[in-house]
């Protein structure tokens, strides 16, 4: 069983959106296609029930169903977001998905935390709740979560909790934070930790150069993320930037707060992976103008990356 | 079945804390005692799974168990807090507790809402989710929830949703809001609505005079709230203020953000209702100094209100 | 010149409101009366240009005029609030008021600060800006400022900056913070520091027992604050609580966010100190109902404290 | 005097950073060079004392000096940011800069505003304060200011205040907001209004297509903004996107919260406009790694846009 997360984990963990049917139910067929797609394009893992997975819009039973379905279907390690308003619900979900074969869980800090000590205490209690044998990912996403963790606080959390094996890094700006953490390690102040970057991949080009181990994000072309990470790991700097820059206009468009998930689902639908781009309420939909903009971005991207050459949109 | 909430509902709805055992499990015996106690002292209803009921610290199954137990045991109408990060979980809980015999549910706005339209839309979608036949209470608690609703926005929500029958009013300051809503009604701009006041009861003396129908809060002497509401409804102004003022030093002490629940559970334990004052993590405990302060406040209160004459604290 | 603040400072520092004329100009005559009044009732100092002094509503020249006028007129030490969006404006005002004879300045953290290090760094830079020879008061007011400082962070700030001689303590809840800081001192981890409490005085009864040196707040009966502090310092516990409790209904009414200043100015007007209760925009005024409630509270208070026996309100 | 802002204003208004000397003083020579540079590259106006102009770090006298210097030197219309914690300071600055010849002022909402009515009232009072004959720009920047204005609220503000002639649009995401406002105009619900877009220009390609009149932002290549706006106004869609996309990797790098200004000043220094990239405290500086990243971005950009061909960095 090589499926448990470790501090050596690297590559691209795709943040999977949750596909819905027009009637609001979970679209299992699309979820299966998505699961297979991530493996086919070279992702090294999948993360389900993240913020972008509309996890809070699922009830407890649905959330568990989604996690189990992906775990059963995929040979990749699966990380499950278990952030919850309280530790009892966090423990219930974490226990169930680890039993189902998850590789680890991901925990984000609740927005009420302010001081360094509050943050450190929270994660110690979270580990008490889920059990210290469950590998977990620390999510650092201040823009959405409003909780600001300094590199020193992150180091305290990692030091306190041996089961914390990965940082999902999505501070913005965040390049100096990667450098600071890697410097801590060089100075012996921090044990090895995997750093996968989020934020839609908006700074992945430089994040790799600063010492990240890969990406954990949901951009609708995970194949590009895989290639950029591979180029960077092989030291092919120009190739990495060239490919990244070609995608940046679309990637930036997808990386809009609130609207981003609609863009992502739309592109995944256009790529034939999802049957529809339906979201559960509350949701921001795409106007006709927005869809036309995405089509323009895809067409322009296709000149550089053939994977963006899609059949003309139908009723889109 | 007189147990469904209506816009005529009045009196005191006690916000029930959730009693825990030392091992963290739910203390059913204390919960039963608490349920009986509220009826004995004259409460007209009970609210479970509110913010002060540590609802987010329960998992889905526990939450439902607590609600069902109180509903089964009590002859009073029971309101159940169903606020959730998403509508699927809200619907699951609302459906289950209404089937179990709840009188209605209570919904608070999520902290991400900012504009008037976002707020109004949220509650329309919430009603779509739970069904428009479920009587519900709109919770207006900006201090904790960070969502600010003007009287006009509250009136829009009530106008949009016939199943909204009550406002849990706990804006601070909030007296003018009661007056504004009652003035809307006088002008025919708002249909009848029950207004029960929260905020620990800190302004109950004047809230009743401004037109509130009662209280929905968790002060550890609900018997005092019952008497103040009764005095006010009978026009016994001096008596209402005299009793209220005697309790104010303790009430104010209990109405401290974060610490308040610890005070409340401690006093309910000292009154013999709860077996212990345990909270689930994360929780703020009481220091020895704090306990001594509460004992002083109880002793001073006992000179005015014999209900505060308690046997000396043991190991407290 | 005993007028500089030190870590031995104690008693009551009145937070002075800024009196305005009906035409919006500063009412110098009322400001003079207020200055004299504070000395007559036993205050040991005055704080001007605080949040409750409507400082942000004054332009730079007016702010300096108010501070200079009070400094010139009073024999009491005067603290001047110099919080500003940037250090240049802070330095300009601090320099000017210290030259005019102020006893010290008060600095609140800007609401953008989140991490412990950000907070500590901010105050170090503030001291660089104003000069390390200016005695200053650290304002800790999370409810309004949204910046949360642990006792350890406060100790770091005090340790870093010898010119920090006082904490204006108005965390809520805040009793344990006083105990924690005094325990740090006992353990030799913190040098002596004056602690004066704000928050409208809502917990002054217990704050004194926890080790506070007095109050710095603006309750419209500073004479009561003076007496409670004196009783507490003499160990007259019952007398302190009796007087405090008699004022609590009014004090609580005044301690409403936003509305509080209107109540305070109204009562100071009713006591004959201010010519009017005018505030500059944006301001929350008092409705007729609110004024009647204050009159009731004054009448009830007058049974216990003759200082509240005021002539009937005129056109109020 | 064609220098007053009107609802027909268009093109590119450069947000000017404030240049400082190594000793912290204002660098007048750089400020003059910058003023001239903006005119030379085709900007149609300049905005000083914006958020990115470090306005809060200047004291009142310095702020006025900067505004007057730019107004005197330039033949372009100058907009001055007058946002302030209170209306008195706002009026003082607005009056002084309009007397000095400013084209108009810019006002951002304070972060305490929450409800639609609070926002609308605030701007009505601001106009009372500065005088209704001063043309002004409404700044809509939720990411930094935390105030969310719907299109309907913006329309109310514009409807209430004839002197509001421009929207500085920097909501994110914001494309639909432009479309909604233009649709209001088509439906006769909104009078003509100039819309210039901020947000570092991150969506300028599509903002122009949605109906914006230009840009008001501080990207270190305002010449690119000028060209993109010109292309868009002439309907040269491909040319607009090609140029924009070539700049996007650097533009995105500059558009990092907090760090962005350091990047901007560094590039302007590298272009020979500013003598140094010094900021006043508190400030985020650039690490050596960050400077190397910017140099890479400049070198890559230079392949597409010769204006980015700069002499090798010296001590940078």
From TrEMBL, chains A, B, C, D:
Gene3D superfamilies recorded: Aldolase class I
Entry-linked SMART domains: DHDPS
Keywords per UniProt: Lyase
Gene Ontology annotations for the cellular component aspect, listed alphabetically: cytosol
Native source organism of the sequence: Chelatococcus reniformis
Single GO term (MF): 4-hydroxy-tetrahydrodipicolinate synthase activity
Protein name per UniProt: Dihydrodipicolinate synthase family protein
A Pfam family annotated for this UniProt entry: DHDPS
Alphabetized PANTHER family for the sequence: 4-HYDROXY-2-OXOGLUTARATE ALDOLASE, MITOCHONDRIAL, DIHYDRODIPICOLINATE SYNTHASE
SUPFAM superfamilies: Aldolase
Family of this protein: Belongs to the DapA family.
Positions with a binding annotation for pyruvate: 216
UniProt KW DNA damage keyword: no
């Amino acid at each position: 069983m090589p499926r448990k997360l470790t501090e050596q984990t690297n590559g691209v963990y795709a943040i999977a959106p949750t596909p819905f049917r027009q009637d609001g139910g979970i679209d299992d067929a699309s979820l299966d296609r998505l699961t297979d797609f991530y493996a086919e394009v070279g992702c090294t893992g999948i993360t389900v029930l993240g913020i972008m997975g509309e996890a809070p819009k699922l009830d407890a039973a649905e959330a568990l169903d989604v996690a189990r379905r992906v775990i059963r279907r995929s040979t990749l390690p699966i990380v499950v977001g278990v952030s919850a308003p309280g530790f009892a619900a966090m423990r219930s979900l974490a226990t169930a998905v680890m039993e189902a074969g998850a590789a680890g869980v991901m925990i984000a800090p609740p927005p009420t935390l302010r001081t360094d000590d509050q943050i450190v205490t929270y994660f110690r209690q979270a580990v008490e709740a889920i059990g210290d044998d469950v590998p977990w990912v620390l999510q650092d996403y201040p823009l959405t979560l409003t909780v600001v963790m300094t590199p020193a606080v992150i180091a305290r959390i990692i030091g306190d909790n041996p089961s914390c094996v990965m940082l999902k890094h999505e501070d913005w700006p965040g390049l100096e934070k990667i450098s600071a953490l890697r410097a801590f390690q060089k100075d012996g102040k921090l044990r090895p930790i995997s750093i996968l970057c989020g934020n839609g991949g908006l700074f992945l080009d430089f994040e790799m150069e600063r010492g990240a181990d890969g990406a954990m994000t949901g951009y609708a072309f995970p194949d590009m993320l895989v290639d950029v990470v591979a180029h960077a790991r092989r030291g092919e700097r120009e190739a990495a930037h060239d490919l990244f820059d070609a995608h940046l206009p679309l990637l930036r468009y997808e990386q809009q707060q609130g609207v981003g998930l609609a863009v992502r689902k739309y592109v995944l639908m256009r790529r034939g992976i999802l049957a529809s781009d339906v979201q559960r309420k509350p949701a921001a939909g795409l106007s006709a103008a927005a869809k036309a903009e995405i089509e323009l971005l895809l067409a322009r991207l296709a000149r550089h990356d053939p994977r963006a050459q899609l059949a003309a949109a139908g009723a889109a």
